[in-house]
User: Which sequence fits this backbone?
């Protein structure tokens, strides 16, 4: 029997320098993909996978994320008085249960490994999910994390979502080698964080969804610096893969890096085109624009 995955960690402390000046006062995770903040899309994916507790690793200037996942009493009251039933219901639906969110701060930007380590006390001694909010995993099916939890229920151990990237982009990501690149779930044979150009063991990148055993925290505690002078999660995962089973779950949906301008814009268009209230009109607008 595997232990159920109940908790998800969402590192949201990044400065968002790629989006300045938009992110001077607004956290990058609160920029919207259509009408939902980036981080809300990722929480939606985690909820669809059965996650019950959301642990946000925040930093200074991120308080608005906490407000977003809290009840907005005055807003609810005004909407009720104006009989805005649909809007009220939508807000109620999105609101996490009382006590289902935790917030802890990463005091200094020392890397992803350090951000995850900051969640150790709240995660405790159980396997957990980790979702990088910049990376949007769009699927018509049950969602990336739900697919991973299915794989975890069958195999136990640790899992990371992977997907192919063009060969000239492998140096921007964590890259994994797998036993069978075509299989939906495959044993990992190696991992490397941001391999120099031409040295990647494959073109499968770590796409930002993980299921990890709590043993990772002991390894992260060493706080050794890796690629880019940061405490890298991948380095501790490599050490963990020598001790425990580690699997790659191939994600076949679309992935948008909402932390890059092009990825963010493409995600907005893709998510809006899929909406019945916006898609047809937007399509017509795009066609007009392309004819300019
Ligand atoms: C992080 C991880 C990397 C992963 C990437 C996905 O890198 O360290 O392994 O491929 O997220 O976005 P970062 O984007 O923080 O440099």
Assistant:
């Amino acid at each position: 029997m595997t232990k159920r995955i109940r908790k998800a960690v969402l590192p949201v402390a990044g400065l968002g320098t790629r989006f300045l000046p938009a992110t001077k006062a607004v956290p990058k995770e609160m920029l919207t993909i259509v009408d939902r903040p980036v981080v809300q899309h990722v929480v939606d994916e985690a909820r669809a996978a059965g996650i019950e507790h959301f642990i946000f690793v925040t930093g200074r200037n991120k308080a608005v994320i906490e407000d977003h996942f809290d009840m907005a009493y005055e807003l609810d009251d005004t909407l009720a008085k104006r009989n805005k039933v649909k809007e009220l219901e939508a807000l109620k639906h999105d609101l996490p249960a009382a006590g289902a969110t935790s917030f802890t701060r990463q005091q200094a930007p020392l890397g992803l490994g350090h951000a995850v380590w900051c969640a150790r006390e709240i995660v405790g001694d159980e396997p957990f999910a980790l979702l990088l909010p910049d990376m949007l995993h769009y699927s018509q099916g049950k969602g990336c994390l739900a697919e991973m939890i299915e794989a975890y229920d069958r195999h136990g151990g640790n899992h990371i979502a992977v997907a192919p990237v063009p060969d000239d982009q492998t140096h921007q990501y964590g890259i994994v080698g797998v036993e069978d690149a075509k299989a939906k779930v495959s044993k990992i044979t190696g991992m490397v964080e941001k391999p120099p150009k031409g040295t990647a063991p494959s073109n499968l990148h770590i796409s930002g969804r993980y299921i990890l055993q709590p043993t990772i925290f002991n390894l992260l505690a060493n706080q050794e610096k890796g690629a880019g002078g940061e405490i890298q999660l991948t380095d501790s995962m490599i050490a963990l893969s020598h001790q425990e089973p580690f699997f790659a779950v191939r994600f076949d949906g679309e992935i948008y890096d909402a932390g890059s301008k092009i990825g963010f814009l493409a995600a907005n268009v893709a998510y809006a085109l899929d909406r019945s209230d916006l898609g047809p009109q937007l399509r017509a607008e795009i066609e007009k624009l392309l004819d300019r």
Remarks:
- The chain has two domains: 7-259, 260-292.
- Residues 100 and 119 are 15 Å apart (CA to CA).
- The longest helix spans residues 261-273.
- The two ends are 60 Å apart (CA to CA).
